[in-house]
Amino acid sequence: MKSMYKAMLGAAAALAAAAVLVACGGSDAPAAGSASTTITGAAVKGPVNGATVNVYRIDAGGVKGALLATTTTGAGGSYSVTLTGYTGDVLIEVTGGTYTDEATGATRPLAETMRVATTSGSEGGTITGIVTPLTTAAYSLGQVGGSGGVTIATYGAALNSIAAQFNLSAINLVTTMPAVTGTTNAYGQMLRAVSQYVANGGTLNTFLNWTSPSSFQVAFSNAYGTINGTPVTFTFNANGVTISGSGAGGGSGTCGVAAHGTATVGGTTVPIDFNYCVNGIAAGSCSAGNSSLSQGLSAAGGATGAVNLTYTYSASCAAGATIITLK
C-alpha cells in the first residue's frame, strides 16, 4: 500500500534524525563544561545483572573516544550513571554479567559486547539508553566496513533500518524498555526470538555483527514463531529495507535521494543529511515528478515536528546510502 511507502520514507528522513536523536537531545558535537548528563537505562538480553557498563564519548567522525564513566547493572539490568561536566554524544558498551535465557530458563553469562549510542545534545540533563541485541545490530550496521566510526546521525539511520526490518518502526529502540517476560511487548518478543534463535543453534555474535543477516532470516523467523506462538516471516539485509505490497514497487528503476535540512522537536533543532537508494520504481521516474516518490518524501513533514527538508534526485546512488527496495 502506498501509505506504507509514505511512512517508510517519512521515517527514513525524519524519524531517524528526529525521533531517535531529538528524543535524546540531538547533537554530533561533544562538549565539556558546567552542564552534566545523567544516563539511565537497562541492559536486556534477558535483563543482564552484574554487567559492566562503560560510557565513552563519541569524537569527530563517530570515532570511539575517551572513557567517561563506568558502572554496573543491578536488578532487572538497570543502571544509572552521571557524566559530570560532559554533554553530547556517547557510546554505551555492556559486557559481562548474567541473564536468564527466555528460551531455556537457564542462567547464562553475557559473553558478547552489546552497544547503544545516544546523545544529550549541548544542554545535558537526563537521557535514556536501553542496550539490547537490536541496538547492537544497529551499531554494527552503521559501521563502515564493519569497523569504522559511527556518528549519531549514521546510528539514527541504521537504527531506523533495524527497527523497520523487525516490524518495530513505531518503537524507539533506544528509549523503550523491552518486556521479555509476563505481559510482553513487541520489542520484548523480538528479544525472546533472539534467545530462541540461539537455543536452536544460531550464534549470537552472527546476529550482533549483522554482516550477513539474510543467512539467518529463516532461522530467526522459525524461532520467533516457536517462542511467541505467532508465525512471522522476516526479510533481513545488511544495508537497507525491503517493503512488500507498497503499491509503488516492482519496477526496474533506481533513484538516489539525498535529504538535507533540519528537524525541530520540543524546541531542539538537529541537522538532517541522509542518502537513500530507492529500488523498484518505474524506469526513468527518478525525479520530483514521480508522484509516489514525492508524496512519500513530503510525508516526512509533520512526522516528528517541524521538518524543513529539500531533496535532490540522481539516477545513481551515493556510496553507503540506505537502501529501500519496493516490491
Provide an overview of this structure.
The chain is of the alpha+beta class and 327 residues long. It folds into three domains: 2-165, Carboxypeptidase-like, regulatory domain (Immunoglobulin-like); 186-232, no CATH class; 242-326, no CATH class. 25% of the residues lie in helices and 32% in strands. It is built from seven helices and 17 strands. It has helices at residues 2-19, 133-142, 152-165, 186-199, 204-209, 217-228, 291-298; strands at residues 31-32, 37-43, 48-49, 52-58, 64-72, 78-83, 86-87, 89-95, 98-100, 107-109, 114-119, 125-131, 240-243, 253-265, 268-281, 306-314, 322-326. Strand 9 and strand 10 (107-109) form a beta hairpin. Helix 4 (186-199) crosses helix 6 (217-228).
Structure in a nutshell:
The protein is of the alpha+beta class and 327 residues long.
Outline type: globular
* Secondary-structure content class: alpha+beta
* Mean residue pLDDT: 81
Task: Determine the CATH topology of the largest domain.
Answer: Immunoglobulin-like
Let me know the CATH homologous superfamily of the largest domain.
Carboxypeptidase-like, regulatory domain
**Strand elements, count:** 17
Poorly predicted regions are: 1-29, 298-306
Counting DSSP H or I runs of 4 or more residues, the number of helices is 7
Adjacency order of strands in the biggest sheet: 13-17-15-14-16
CATH architectural arrangement of the largest domain: Sandwich
Distance between the termini: 10 Å
Q: What about the largest sheet? A: 5 strands, mixed
- Structural domains: how many: 3
Helical content band? 25-40%
| CATH C-level class of the largest domain | Mainly Beta
Strand content: 25-35%
Tell me the Rg in angstroms: 19 Å
